[in-house]
Design a protein that fits this description.
Two copies of one chain form a homodimer.
Chain A: H1 5-10, H2 32-36, E1 49-63, H3 73-77, H4 85-89, E2 124-131, E3 139-144, H5 150-153, E4 159-167, E5 178-188, H6 204-207, H7 218-240, E6 244-245, E7 251-252, E8 263-267, H8 289-309, H9 313-339, E9 362-363, H10 368-378, E10 380-388, E11 401-410, H11 414-435, H12 437-446, H13 451-460, E12 464-467, H14 468-476, H15 495-505, E13 510-516, E14 532-540, E15 544-551, H16 556-565, H17 574-581, E16 587-593, H18 594-602
Parallel strand pairs in A: 3-5, 6-10, 12-13
Antiparallel strand pairs in A: 1-2, 1-4, 2-3, 4-5, 7-9, 10-11, 11-16, 13-14, 14-15, 15-16
Chain lengths: 622, 622
């Protein structure tokens, strides 16, 4: 092809027809990200005819008697201008390479969504910024008032499906591309007075009242995408390391009776039978009422302490049950001292079953025991699903329904589980930094500017590993600060203690292991010292405890002894003890509260903002 | 490097040291698949020192006074021989390329697991086949009786962690490699009399009584790995197509009162208050008792029909409620005719809340409504989680707790959802065929020899798409077969009808769409004919309905009309109706019962064998 190059060079080139835009696979329109997330912001698609859809994020009206092109957009419009962050967002693709220079300018413009005007007498153009959820960037559509009245299109939240031609933006500087609508295939109107998102600058706390709408805000949509990314990242980590995903049961019979905080499951037909607690009162003869009352004070203190620490459900359950029994004992002794008559009933019967299940059924608080049975066959397993607690706690990290990631590994000891937990968090942090960058960047402007740094730092820092005993020593030496809960060996570390260790002392993630046995679940492996167990907590800057793990007790005699000590109902654990009787294996694992991982990655402070439909004490709206 | 090549060629080559075997990342041993799944079956690792662990799948004892090497294994041992499928399995890696020639020979040897002998007087070697869950193939370990007595090691299910050296097999022809144990780091003994898997050829139905042990059988382990594969394949499909994963709530307030089959959630403390049904009895004055009694007969028939069809929970709920009201009406009329007095109460109050939630809380039967709210913001979304029904049905496909995949797409219509459902099933079938081949191959020998063909055929066949009306026409013309439920337009298709269409008539997957509106949920979009709705079912050979989907009703007036017609409680749906009032969008989606997908892929017949811990009517064991 060396012949006559000059000739060809000088020939007028035909304008190349733009490549057709890919349709969304399962709807007859073009996803906005197909246009907006291109390197050129969509510029190469000029003159393409497309159908696009989405919800109006902001809008303004432009009167046609003002010159549309050239000059600044504000001057050009003549109509009312909506200064909103979505307009800023629309610049991102075009300026991706210099994105960082924008800095925090937009951080304080917070969702200033302005809306609608009455229909003007003069012809006008509705300038709409829409989003279809596929891109964080908004897309501009120009709709002539002869096609649809601005009053119908401009309210925030209006849904439109528009056909038209892509063109260079009519208003300089705002967008790389826009659509000149020729036909509206669908309009889903909005009743502004009753649409919660019509209001300007709605704080996250207010958005909790409309969980069915809030993903339409860029902030909540970004959170949900980061959440989706964390989900994918978690599966990727475990699958890449040969773990088998197992669906552990949600409805379970294995639960500690003493718990005051579990949900019971029944069919609505049989929602009637009162449940009676088993009350066993042996050895009550030789105890004085005074001794018992003193003991109640002590035991109440312990329960409160455990409740604050949020670390050990079984220990709490045992303490609650213990207190309950002691209270009953006191009541009985008191009654006896009054009536001088012997108490009649020693043990009341338990009412079980509800007609559907023939024994009592609960919503699971943890899939860990069931996972152990799978690990004792398949090796490495993990579960990802909802878990439940009926505590009326007011913690920013607590929900009645939460999603957990749980894992269990056969032939594995405490150190292995700690290493796996650290690798897991690093892998997930890396993954979301890489794959959810745009959403994280947006959240760093809107919610917490440190999130990207924190994710990167977590991924590259070697976690500090210290024993509980070391942690107590460090905290005991603190002089410049007074902790609400005084520290001494045996006390459960509170959020305040943990925060001091990671945020102020070590200044990095800390794994605290070898806790006093009374602070950890019944099935954690007893260490040789006889007083600590092979459990660990991973404490992360800003969010606190994110992962709790342990090596499980594989020795039958130790496990049965512990079940007895804690007053758990052995017959509920027969199947679990079987695992120790038949081919027992050393194994360890951990659980991560997925919702708290979302807090960490997004910088949010309250878990109610981090889950799609939070469930907590009070009225459920949907 | 062309100098003196001959010299180098003639020099004696040092035996290359075998490459070290990778340790399992989170335990200090070598995963068996690292050895067994190599192309050479592990042969290249001879002389390596390794630690391996696992559970004994079969065993035999070999007396040392017989020559160990050469000749047939059976002759060589002199001890008792266990002919079991795991021995066959052990040949697979070595003979992978000619695997198909083995054909069905092993299909009828079913888990003949033999066990233990008393300790012999003479020195002997325990020959153990172990599995650690990482590979479908067993691994052979030789343990001299001086290290541990055979009586302790040989019971099926014994867990061992052994250190030793890899060597060529002492017994010709059985394995590519074996371990000569030098040290046992752990033995988890088995009490044979109480270990359910000690028994030979345990059928799957019997294994349901020991869900905590059954993944130790190769069959159940394979099922769980295919299940894991389907999970991964599903996430992969949706993520590749830009769907956002959303965790829809398990505890919900949105449920149809008329349902007889939902679970109620309460805290155990408040498990007391009887719930009273709302009974509204208007227009009772002018109806005769006889008319009402006739109507009860009709309505009972309809309920039974809907129950059999398993297709439409809302229609069933409406029918049940309708019947319930009619019964109440009859009772009232009867009472009135006796006492001649007017009924006092028109409407009784509902008892709501349980102290934790201030209104009634249920376990969700479907995440579809909540997904719609997310789709109306994010575009394409999907959910993967547990769903609940309290039916006491005896179907092989029914469980009280089941895992579902649900998806919803904005700007999408019926056809889009049908295409997506078809692509989804094809993609998933392809994925598991490629990634779970060994487990599928094993299951094809043990459970159903057609599974690989069925998966491949599903992936390559264009599904037949017919309307409900066409389906009824086809079924009406059938003369060589009598259906239990007589077919006519308006009747719900039963499993028998569906099976005829896919297995005998079309001989491929069939999508049946445009069903009568009374057979489908209240929120399916009404077609222009006013009597059918934009719903579809995907019927697959052998398993029947696997996916149900629809385009949702986006028009407020149609939806409110339908809610009224079916007697649903409008106030429970306020938030859902909001989605139609504020920026409504056309949208469609579908749900797939994940557990039934496992039936399809594994060839199993009963869903209780396809989930790790089945939950159905009766006692829950764990």
């Amino acid at each position: 092809m060396s012949s006559a190059p000059h000739l060809f060079d000088e020939m007028p080139k035909p304008t190349p027809a733009p490549m057709p835009v890919d349709l969304s696979k399962y709807s007859k329109r073009v996803l906005l990200k197909t246009i907006l997330d291109r390197g050129d912001g969509g510029l190469g698609l000029v003159d393409q005819r497309v159908v696009v859809g989405g919800w109006v994020k902001s809008s303004r009206e432009m009167r046609k008697d003002h010159p549309p092109a050239g000059g600044d957009a504000k001057e050009a419009t003549g109509g009312k201008d909506v200064k909103c962050v979505e307009v800023f967002q629309s610049r991102i693709p075009f300026l991706r390479t210099i994105i960082k220079v924008f800095g925090g300018n937009t951080a304080h413009t917070k969702e200033k969504l302005e809306s609608v005007l009455p229909k003007p007498a003069t012809p006008s153009i509705s300038v709409l910024q829409i989003s279809d959820g596929s891109s964080i960037i908004s897309f501009q559509i120009m709709v002539d008032s002869s096609i649809a009245p601005p009053s119908q299109l401009m309210p925030i939240g209006t849904c439109i499906l528009a056909e038209g031609v892509l063109q260079k933006p009519s208003l300089q500087g705002k967008h790389a591309i826009e659509l000149k609508a020729e036909k509206l295939l669908h309009i889903g109107i909005v009743d502004q007075d009753n649409y919660p998102l019509s209001k300007k600058s709605l704080p996250l706390a207010r958005l909790r009242d409309c969980t069915h709408f809030r993903p339409r805000t860029t902030t909540v949509a970004s959170v949900m995408k980061v959440r989706n990314g964390l989900n994918q990242a978690s599966h990727t980590f475990f699958q890449n390391h040969g773990f088998i995903h197992v669906e552990v049961p949600i409805i379970t019979a294995t639960n500690t009776e003493g718990f005051s905080d579990i949900f019971q499951v029944s069919t609505s037909k049989s929602f009637a039978k009162e449940q009676k607690k088993e009350v066993s009162m042996d050895d009550t003869e030789n105890i004085s009422l005074e001794t018992v009352k003193l003991s109640i004070v002590e035991k109440s203190k312990k329960v409160e302490e455990l409740k604050r620490s949020d670390s050990n459900k079984e220990a709490l359950a045992a303490a609650v049950q213990d207190l309950h029994k002691t209270n009953l004992l006191a009541a009985e002794l008191e009654a006896r001292s009054k009536s001088k008559s012997k108490s009649k009933s020693k043990t009341e019967s338990i009412k079980t079953g509800d007609g559907f299940f023939s024994n009592q059924a609960f919503l699971t608080t943890s899939g860990s025991l069931h996972l152990e049975s799978c690990a004792s066959a398949l090796g490495n397993v993990y579960a990802f699903g909802p878990r439940f607690q009926a505590d009326k706690s007011e913690s920013r990290k607590y929900l009645a329904e939460k999603w957990m990631i749980e894992t269990e590994m056969a032939f594995s000891e405490l150190e292995d589980a700690m290493n796996c937990a650290e690798d897991f968090l690093k892998s997930v942090s890396n993954w979301v930094s890489e794959n959810c960058y745009e959403n994280l960047y947006f959240l760093s402007k809107r919610v917490d500017k440190t999130i990207l740094d924190r994710l990167n730092s977590l991924a590259s820092t070697v976690f500090e590993k210290i024993t509980y005993t070391t942690a107590v020593e460090v905290l005991s030496k603190v002089t410049d600060k007074t902790f609400e809960t005084k520290i001494h060996w045996g006390v459960a570390l509170t959020e305040e203690h943990e925060s001091y260790l990671v945020d102020e002392f070590y200044k990095k993630p800390v794994i605290i292991y070898d806790h006093p046995k009374d602070l950890k679940p019944f099935n954690v492996r007893l260490n040789d010292d006889g007083k600590t167990v092979a459990a660990f907590d991973v404490i992360i800057p800003k969010v606190g405890a994110l992962i709790r793990g342990s090596q499980k007790e594989e020795r039958l005699n130790h496990l049965t002894k512990r079940i007895k000590e804690l007053g758990l109902k052995k017959d509920q654990y027969e199947w679990y003890l079987d695992l120790r009787k038949q081919g027992t294996v050393k194994h360890s694992g951990f659980n991560a509260t997925f919702d708290v991982m979302v807090l960490f990655a997004t910088g949010l402070n309250d878990v109610r903002d981090a889950v799609p439909f939070p469930r907590h004490n009070g009225k459920i709206h949907n």
